[in-house]
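I'll show a sample.
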Amino acid sequence: MERRMSAETCPLTSDPLKAGGCLYVRIHRYRIGLSKVTPEDVEYYNCQQELAGELNKQYQIVERIIAVRTGKSATVQSDLPVNSRRSSTSNEPEYLCKWMGLPYADSSWENESLVGKKFQNCIDSFHSRNNSKNTPVKDSKVLRQRPRFVTLKKQPSYIGGEGLELRDYQLEGLNWLAHSWCK
């Protein structure tokens, strides 16, 4: 149960913006024996501190590697997050790391020596994705020249099985996806 403090209940301030800090003052008073703090307040405070600590630990875990560059490459792609654009002077590879619990905009370039110590599996999975023959590479013919769009009038044989049939709106959605891909 979260307790909200108001300016009236906080003895130290009448400013509503600072009233949230009153809980911490009350807990401090509780610890030194001047209390008007309930055990629920102390438990809530301890839970909040524990959650904050767990979140900070989570932000130090690499979720996935997005890109790699060496110190020799002076150009950085413009589609990368602004805060991740920095230059490197060494020839050691750097990896663009997406951190767990943070958005892609907070990704950052990290040296291979730092990332490789704890997150070698992320580096390996990045290289296996890039070397995969199942996904087209950036200079693939498919990505340079798209086929002409042909409207599907009925359900293709490769979708569904026995007794499964697309509804009209699903076939329309499939046509829209195919049309968008062919542009």
Notes: The chain has three domains: 1-58, 62-136, 146-183. Strands lie at 62-69, 94-99, 108-111.
